Amino acid sequence: MSRYETFVNPLTERYACKEIQYIFSPQKKFSTWRKLWIALAEAEKELGLPITEEQIKEMKSNINNIDFEYAKEMEKSLRHDVMAHVHTFGKIAPNAKPIIHLGATSAYVGDNCDLIVMKEALIHIRKKLVNLIYNLRNFALKYKHLPTLGFTHYQPAQLTTVGKRASLWLQDFMLDFDELEYLLQNLRFRGVKGTTGTQASFMKLFDNDSEKVKKLDEIVSKKMGFDKVLKITGQTYTRKQDTKVLSLLAKIAESAHKMATDIRLLQNLKEVEEPFEKKQIGSSAMAYKRNPMRSERVCALARHIITLSLNPYMTHAIQWFERTLDDSANRRITIPESFMGVDAILNLLINITDGLIVYEKMIEKHIKQELPFMATENIIMEAVKKGADRQEMHEIIRVHSMEAGKKIKLEGMENDLLERLIKDNRVPLDENEIKTLLDPKEFIGRAPEQVLEFINEEVDPIIEKYKNELGINIEIKV
Q: In this structure, what DSSP letter does residue 461 have?
């Protein structure tokens, strides 16, 4: 049967990059199991167990020499993946076979490996997130002064700037970044805990020397790159750690969906457009179309990730006592897919923000259509300064506004409110005075300053800290 006759996961075929796929690959998983067995043997030897340097060298020289076919045969026979790989490792390292997995339970390699892999995947996601934050930073700075219609309820509202709106997207990702940093600093290793978390097997190995068993846990955890270790476990680490990780990934997806949706709406208004390649086809039937297909894909993947994040909540909730195995199949799917989905989303958003197009004339046109209505309060106040009655001015402008609105909605005409007010002798302002009150920059408040303050105080310190991770090449497969 060819590869085209079996199901393939679109995340690996179409969306996620090679680096994140390797992190969740069988080679990475089982070579990490072997590193964990080596760390355990080294620590046990250091604490006095009769393990030789030759045994450890034999194990180290075969970390990546994995006979996957033999392991598959052994698992089919034993119905146990960890024991299958103990035998597979023992076959290639026969002198070390007696001490591989000494005192450990399956969760020693399974759970600790998952934590190692998730930590590496979080570091990978951090790199992508830094690059997206950098792109959004530059875009926000470039357009911090450019006025644009704000929208509340998707109805035209007070003006903002293109850069300020981008800063809203950026701030969401900054909040996610802060949480990612916290999670990386506080993700806890399972360590060396034994069958039900009591370390009873290791107490036997070390003749009930509690301090040595405690030290064993610390040594192995540090060897595997973790400063923080769970003091208490059952057979497995608490699945609440999975909840924290997938919740963070869902939050990144949430931020991405919000941003991509805004871009889709702006592309409909012809104000902002995602990159469109020279030979790209928007529609098989409508040749003129330029669909926001990358932003749409972001939204599709984001919804999938958000729904996946429900799984760890339910999985942890139904773990009985020290553990049950109904977490296994679920975690094999939801954890890798969540990471690969977020990786794919960040690839798309980096690509989009590398070439996001702003159509300033369309933005200006939309402002001109709506600004006269928004300027009415300023016109009233300026007329009052010249001696007009406030209530009378309000009524005059209200009537003209209603008539101008009818022309726009019923006849498809341009907004002629300004012309109406200029011609009305009851309004004590001339044409120049009225038009002066309609400078869009007078309606954006502190938006440019807000962008600068936000970037200088919160964004740039992160960019400076991770400047060596900037400048990655993103390939969008389809």
A: H
Catalytic hit among 153, 221, 257, 400: 153
163, 141 Cβ separation under 8 angstroms: yes
Q: Which helix (H) or strand (E) holds 108?
A: helix 106-142
Q: Is 478 helix (H, G, I), strand (E, B) or coil?
A: coil
153 has catalytic annotation = yes
Q: CA torsion sign, 249 to 254 to 257 to 263?
A: negative
Choose, from 61, 77, 210, 283, the residue flagged as catalytic: 283
| DSSP alpha helix (H) spans, 187-229 | 200-205, 210-223
Contact 166, 380 (CB under 8 A): no
Integer Cα distance of 398 and 145 in angstroms: 31
Q: 3-class SS at 424?
A: coil
Task: Give 151's strand partners.
Answer: 156
Residue 409 tokens, joined: 């909605």
Higher pLDDT, 30 or 473: 30
Looking at residue 289, what is its pLDDT? 56
Is 283 marked active-site?
Answer: yes
SS3 of the chain: helix, strand, coil, percent, to 5: 65, 5, 30
- 298 Cβ contact list (under 8 Å, min separation 6): 256, 257, 259, 260, 345, 348, 349, 352
The answer to whether residue 172 scores a pLDDT higher than 80 is yes
Non-local (6+) Cβ contacts of 127 within 8 A are: 466, 469, 472
End-to-end CA distance of the chain: 25
Residue 288 pLDDT > 80, yes or no?
Answer: no
3-class secondary structure, 182: helix
pTM of the model: 0.93
Rounded distance, CA 49 to CA 165, Å? 62
The answer for residues whose C-beta is within 8 angstroms of residue 219's C-beta and 6 or more apart is 39, 42, 43, 46, 47
SS3 31: helix
27: exposed, middle or buried (Cβ count in 10 Å: 0-12, 13-18, 19+) = exposed
Written in H, E and C, the secondary structure of 362-414 is HHHHHHHHHHHHHCHHHHHHHHHHCCCCHHHHHHHHHHHHHHHHHHHHHHCCC
pLDDT at 438 over 90: no
- pLDDT tens by residue, 223-266: 999 999 999 999 999 999 999 999 999 999 999 999 999 999 99
